[in-house]
Amino acid sequence: MTSITVKSLSFYYKKEDPILTDISLTFDQRTTAIIGQNGAGKTTLVKLLKGLLKPASGEIWINDQDTRVVSVAKLAGYIGLVFQNPNDQIFKSKVIDEVMFGPLNVGQPKEEAITNSMNALLMVGMEDKKDDHPYDLSLSERKLISIASIIAMNTDIVIFDEPTIAQDYAGKETIKRVIHDLQKKGKWVITIIHDMDFVAETFARTIVLANGKILLDGTTREIFLQKDVLVQAGLNLPHVTQLGYLLEKNKTVLTIDEFIKDSKL
């Protein structure tokens, strides 16, 4: 059974300059956004979840595996991370080879890896690019290729680092659909993100980090009710939520559809 538990986690490179302090979390299957200003500790936290970093103190358990002692290679079978910059992830000269690299390295037989890779490319709408060189594609397309390469690994947990960077409206809608499809398949989706509009439209749970500590943790609607706390954390509300408050709507509006429906009442 999939599980992620963080207990009293702290991390620093220099003891006098802590990056994360006494973080305790239990993740569940809700789509979860982790938000906060640059330097809040978001990227450090997901690197710790992935096993790329080890706690200075405290524990992280992924599917009953203690990340302090289990290898990154073994954790790769449980948890996949889509990098913020696809250029830091992509290195093959053919899209299909890039997408297959992860599946093959976590032990999928070649035919299974091919099937999973083509299904992943289909999911992100890039199946017609399978024979292209990744660097002949746009940055937004490379981002979708990097997402497909992690999806194809078929891990229980998928982490996205700033998935909407370089994406236009169509790209964001594709990524939103991918996140929902992954959840329907029983995958756990965690995302680091600065795009508050995308958070409001896509994620059931939101965690706010500030100065290496958890400031807020709750449903996305509950979080965006905490206007003053978010301002103190240097975060903006989603645009439609701001508009709703300006027009004195009787609730926290998260999406344009909600805004329109509320306007008709």
From TrEMBL:
GO cellular component entries: ATP-binding cassette (ABC) transporter complex
In what way does this protein cross or attach to the membrane?
Peripheral membrane protein
Per the UniProt record, one Pfam family is ABC_tran
Main localization of the protein? membrane
> Does the entry feature the keyword DNA damage, yes or no?
no
| Nucleotide-binding among keywords | yes
Cell location? Cell membrane
The ABC transporter domain extends over 4-236
Q: Which GO terms describe its molecular function?
A: ATP binding; ATP hydrolysis activity; ATPase-coupled transmembrane transporter activity; cobalt ion transmembrane transporter activity
> Per UniProt, which keywords does this protein have?
ATP-binding, Cell membrane, Membrane, Nucleotide-binding, Translocase, Transport
PANTHER family to which the protein is assigned, alphabetical: HEAVY METAL TRANSPORTER (PTHR43553)
Family note: Belongs to the ABC transporter superfamily.
Q: What name does this protein carry?
A: ABC transporter ATP-binding protein
The organism is Peribacillus psychrosaccharolyticus (Bacillus psychrosaccharolyticus)
Organism placement in taxonomy: Bacteria, Bacillati, Bacillota, Bacilli, Bacillales
